[in-house]
């Protein structure tokens, strides 16, 4: 007979810690070296690197973003990096992602290796945290390893790990935060079980149970969620959804433990969850602005001094009043009429098509390479080099199907393990529909990929069945074939992920749809 303590401790992680970490580090290291090869290619400021790499260098030298000379990009690539102007630059995103890019530039200089190195580290760590999250949710090292392998061979994650954009850092902190929150769920249930065991009780007998106000894993989640918001604001939707879910988890755990009024979690546990997630996260967010706050030349830094009548300035002082005004201007930039009515982009992609990868993003392209140049062996045509931010097609389409299956397993079969990745997909994807009247890009979906591959891995291993299942061997062949096809599919598209030299027919062979061009 299953006891309350058994139920609270059900599904505790297997004690294969050393083996699981060995597998985790093995996959992560392989992914790192796979992404590190040719990191400096293309040798240019590709796509929005023209903003973030230079902003990072400005922050590194001066503590805030500055404007640059008109031909700065060419001069930087030629080694003449002294192209910064004295005027501050208005920016549309918080500084943490650029601070991380700046760390790479500090180590290796203002060059492609320097401004891409931090993305390489972040992309590799994103795979590590995805493995650990998938393992914790499924209680299976096999699922964790499979999720890590799938993410290693995803084209979008590969490309975003090799370019100095902000989104890879946002995804890293979000996944790490959710990993900490999942660990807090297990920690809380374990503490309730320990309480019953220490008191020699079969259950709480109607009592609310221990308060457990200090929740170390939830505080860690708050720190990481704050860091994710300090890269890009839309991480606030993740905080909102999972701030509610963690309280629901508490309520469910107390009900399972025998509390007669578990709804009191809304009055007792919820306020502390708010402090540990939102307030702690807010401090991290504000800390990311310290370089700007410590200077006097940043954009809008003197607003408070020039507007002492502003109520926010009067309440919080000149520095925080100036920072608040800056945030108002950033918000107006993102939601302003010019974004909806005049801004367009060649590679804009409606979020409705992200899961099926209907529109990719061109990161870099060098066309018209004549035969004999750069090793081009084309006959009757030319060669080119491109970097396309697109996922591995078979992986993305299989994951889309798996998400439908997982939704059914969560709702019909009440398998809570699918709730976290599915809600993570929803909180990082659905909010974009509200802003679909302005240019959005497919590479924003890097926030979804860790969770879609987690869902796919969980569904595949569930299909595989237990070791003694009569059709285990046959199903293992099917699962292996799917994973093998995904890896081969990645290898086929690898040239357009890595800026490799292709003839034009070879490139067109990989453009399965006109919207990928």
Beta fraction: 5-15%
Helix content: 55-70%
- Average predicted local confidence, pLDDT: 95
Return residue spans where pLDDT drops below 50 for at least 5 consecutive residues. Answer: none
Structural category:
mainly alpha
Number of strands: 5
Envelope shape: globular
- Give me the side-by-side strand order of the main sheet: 3-4-5
Largest sheet: 3 strands, antiparallel
What would you say this structure looks like, in words?
The chain is built from 21 helices and 5 strands. It has a domain at 291-335. The strands form 2 sheets. A 3-stranded antiparallel beta sheet has the order 3-4-5. A two-stranded antiparallel sheet has the order 1-2. It has helices spanning 4-9, 17-36, 49-62, 72-77, 96-108, 112-138, 141-152, 155-160, 167-199, 216-229, 236-257, 269-288, 290-293, 303-306, 311-335, 337-341, 393-411, 419-429, 449-464, 472-497, 504-509, and strands spanning 66-68, 84-88, 361-369, 383-389, 501-503. The longest helix is centred in the middle third of the chain and has 33 residues, at 167-199.
